[in-house]
Amino acid sequence: MVQATNLGFPRIGAQRETKKIVESFWAGKVTEQAVDEAAIKLRAENWQLQKAQGLTQIPSGDFSFYDHVLDHSVMFNVIPQRFRHLPDGHERNFAIGRGIQKPATETQEKVDIEAQEMKKWFDTNYHYIVPEFEANQTFHLGAQIKTLQEFNEAKALGIHTRPVVLGPLSFLLLGKAAKNSPGLDLITLLPKVLPVYEELFAKLAQAGADWIQVDEPILALDQPSAVIAHFRETYTRLTAAAPSLKFLIATYFGRIDSNVSFIKDSGVAGLHIDLVRAPEQLEHVIANINNTQVLSLGLIDGRNIWKTNLANALKIAQTAVQALGSDRVFVAPSCSLLHTPVTLRFEKRLASKSPELFDWLAYSEEKCKEVQALNNGVESVQAELADNARSIEARRTSAHTTNSAVRQRLEAIVPDQLRRRSVFPERQVKQHEANPLPEFPTTTIGSFPQTKEIRLARAKFTKGEINDAAYYDFIKQEIAFCVQEQEKLGIDVLVHGEAERNDMVAYFGERLEGYIFSENGWIASYGSRCVRPPIIFGDVHRVKPMTVTESVYAQSLTKKLMKGMLTGPVTCLQWSFVRDDIPRSVVCTQLALAIRDEVADLEKANIVHIQVDEPAIREGLPLRTVDFDFYLQWAVDAFLLATTGVKDTTVIHTHMCYSDFQDIFQAIIRMDADVLTIENSKSDMRILGAFSTHGYTAEIGPGVFDIHSPRVPSTQEMKERADAMLKYIPRRNLWINPDCGLKTRGWKEVRESLSNMVAVAEALRASKA
């Protein structure tokens, strides 16, 4: 019969238990033992919850304190040399992800180590720690084999799980060559790593595992035939070495296309495909597997929070069953449920205040129920299918999802609304004349530390414990403090610090129609950081100005230039749970019109530097190159619509982070921003070559220090980065700034880092051209 399965469950806990225990460990409040005990408890709860929903194949090995790719690297001994002197355990693993900095003591030398690079996990807002491989890389399993330990942990509870392992091809090709191994072809490490996979699989088989899930997400990307040949050889070898194990190759986030060619003769027992992102691939995949292989159907959206149309999903499942037989079909979410909140059980406020919309939602626990409903088939779940159909129809016909004025405004957009009045060289001259800045101007990306006091005041305001006047007086004090600190540091273009903002997308969503907010809809972003994406359920539009009051107040406190800070339409889209009943491009254009109105009001208020952040524009790029142009056309058009209605003397900034810009460089040029700031400090300067190669002529601020790490880089370290930048960027166009916003850092490290950063700019100005 059809089996109900899952690819992964959220690791953060229903009440963000993982975040809380990890950050307590970082603060020195709890021991490693306490951290481990908390994890054991949470994993048990996750397994038991999935078992209670009737899943027959439950994943293990999907838990992580920080990042599953980092865990896999450590398990395979892929630990950069700079961390090897640190003792095994959580402190070293966290240091790899965050960096580490400790002053010298009588018994210990100074410790100052940079974190590994962090990148977006495909087209999600989750970040993974990029493995670093050396030419002489050795692989071996340590004494603590995480995947095996967690399989045995579940087994002791009476729960037989399907271990999850990152596959060897994805492990290598999602990594990078270490600095001491330039030019390393990562695929040449395959013969070295495969024996360690064989050893791991042998241990899992000995422990009693039968099915094993091997994630190979790079199969959703364009791959050359040589890589597919490696897939065929690799899995033929691995399956032959572990004949008692049944291998399920898991792909997700897109279509497998011709990459499926190796599956039929590879020896693997099954293949998982994403039929939410790529429902059209089913027939092609069925035709390209052999007559014994299982097909796992990703029918429940693992990346959004809407109920599944079970009737439609059931039709797809029945198509597969008719072609393959019920014994060769699994039903599952499209991908790991890492990307959806844990449970609706704690959404009390949403359930009481917005019962209609609450009825349209499904988080991870509810998605497991949906998987089981598909597994049960038509006859046994008639009532459940009927209830689901009622919810789907109610959402389709709801009057709350459409706004005729918004639709009319979309239809009235004309090409002139997507162009600045003059080309950049002419604007640059006017901007420098109107508001002169020193060479190598310094700025920050927007946010400053969200202190305990800020969070407490916001919580009291949200609960109604303080009134509007008291809260906004507090916010004004925080803005004044932030402006004073920047003036003391000598920063050239200031920001107001965003004390009033809980999140760079949620803040705007709270002020736009068409959004609604969860109370507990948290998902993992990176490390211990969780985000609570707002929910776009209807047509989006702006009712009144959203940021003007704070920016104008901040500008009144200083003679220096103040930047207005906005989040761009593509990022608002990407970092929200987006309605799935109209095209994403339409939603993005609605957001662009709202931001355009805000940009116009900031300019009217004499804010002449306006930053419209688009850190997620590369994140939204489709996985297949054939789909790039369509996405980039509407995404860049949305940015232009939001930003081009200003005078030539108004400076439009944008910010991007964690991106491989080579794929979108022409789109970046077409965005026509006056100043582009980018994440750069952990990318080994490799992205800057693209700016030189493609002839980027606008101003640019590559980050000189990593804000995701608590360590404070020295002036010399930052100066070396800036000097390297000048090999690619003309002096007149270079800004000096951090990688990203400073929200997650503390004031002490922020002051020290920014002071060093300003010193770099001063040193550059003193140097000869």
Automatic annotation (TrEMBL):
<feature type="binding site">
    <location>
        <position position="19"/>
    </location>
    <ligand>
        <name>5-methyltetrahydropteroyltri-L-glutamate</name>
    </ligand>
</feature>
<keyword id="KW-0862">Zinc</keyword>
<dbReference type="Pfam" id="PF08267">
    <property type="entry name" value="Meth_synt_1"/>
</dbReference>
<dbReference type="GO" id="GO:0032259">
    <property type="term" value="P:methylation"/>
</dbReference>
<feature type="binding site">
    <location>
        <position position="740"/>
    </location>
    <ligand>
        <name>Zn(2+)</name>
    </ligand>
</feature>
<feature type="binding site">
    <location>
        <position position="575"/>
    </location>
    <ligand>
        <name>5-methyltetrahydropteroyltri-L-glutamate</name>
    </ligand>
</feature>
<feature type="binding site">
    <location>
        <position position="613"/>
    </location>
    <ligand>
        <name>L-homocysteine</name>
    </ligand>
</feature>
<dbReference type="InterPro" id="IPR013215">
    <property type="entry name" value="Cbl-indep_Met_Synth_N"/>
</dbReference>
<feature type="active site" description="Proton donor">
    <location>
        <position position="708"/>
    </location>
</feature>
<feature type="binding site">
    <location>
        <position position="613"/>
    </location>
    <ligand>
        <name>L-methionine</name>
    </ligand>
</feature>
<dbReference type="GO" id="GO:0009086">
    <property type="term" value="P:methionine biosynthetic process"/>
</dbReference>
<dbReference type="GO" id="GO:0003871">
    <property type="term" value="F:5-methyltetrahydropteroyltriglutamate-homocysteine S-methyltransferase activity"/>
</dbReference>
<feature type="domain" description="Cobalamin-independent methionine synthase MetE C-terminal/archaeal">
    <location>
        <begin position="440"/>
        <end position="762"/>
    </location>
</feature>
<feature type="binding site">
    <location>
        <position position="125"/>
    </location>
    <ligand>
        <name>5-methyltetrahydropteroyltri-L-glutamate</name>
    </ligand>
</feature>
<dbReference type="InterPro" id="IPR002629">
    <property type="entry name" value="Met_Synth_C/arc"/>
</dbReference>
<keyword id="KW-0028">Amino-acid biosynthesis</keyword>
<keyword id="KW-0479">Metal-binding</keyword>
<protein>
    <recommendedName>
        <fullName>5-methyltetrahydropteroyltriglutamate--homocysteine S-methyltransferase</fullName>
        <ecNumber>2.1.1.14</ecNumber>
    </recommendedName>
</protein>
<feature type="binding site">
    <location>
        <position position="679"/>
    </location>
    <ligand>
        <name>Zn(2+)</name>
    </ligand>
</feature>
<feature type="domain" description="Cobalamin-independent methionine synthase MetE N-terminal">
    <location>
        <begin position="4"/>
        <end position="322"/>
    </location>
</feature>
<keyword id="KW-0489">Methyltransferase</keyword>
<keyword id="KW-0808">Transferase</keyword>
<comment type="pathway">
    <text>Amino-acid biosynthesis; L-methionine biosynthesis via de novo pathway; L-methionine from L-homocysteine (MetE route): step 1/1.</text>
</comment>
<feature type="binding site">
    <location>
        <position position="657"/>
    </location>
    <ligand>
        <name>Zn(2+)</name>
    </ligand>
</feature>
<dbReference type="InterPro" id="IPR006276">
    <property type="entry name" value="Cobalamin-indep_Met_synthase"/>
</dbReference>
<feature type="binding site">
    <location>
        <position position="655"/>
    </location>
    <ligand>
        <name>Zn(2+)</name>
    </ligand>
</feature>
<feature type="binding site">
    <location>
        <begin position="529"/>
        <end position="530"/>
    </location>
    <ligand>
        <name>5-methyltetrahydropteroyltri-L-glutamate</name>
    </ligand>
</feature>
<dbReference type="GO" id="GO:0008270">
    <property type="term" value="F:zinc ion binding"/>
</dbReference>
<feature type="binding site">
    <location>
        <begin position="445"/>
        <end position="447"/>
    </location>
    <ligand>
        <name>L-methionine</name>
    </ligand>
</feature>
<feature type="binding site">
    <location>
        <position position="498"/>
    </location>
    <ligand>
        <name>L-methionine</name>
    </ligand>
</feature>
<comment type="function">
    <text>Catalyzes the transfer of a methyl group from 5-methyltetrahydrofolate to homocysteine resulting in methionine formation.</text>
</comment>
<dbReference type="Pfam" id="PF01717">
    <property type="entry name" value="Meth_synt_2"/>
</dbReference>
<comment type="similarity">
    <text>Belongs to the vitamin-B12 independent methionine synthase family.</text>
</comment>
<keyword id="KW-0486">Methionine biosynthesis</keyword>
<dbReference type="InterPro" id="IPR038071">
    <property type="entry name" value="UROD/MetE-like_sf"/>
</dbReference>
<feature type="binding site">
    <location>
        <begin position="445"/>
        <end position="447"/>
    </location>
    <ligand>
        <name>L-homocysteine</name>
    </ligand>
</feature>
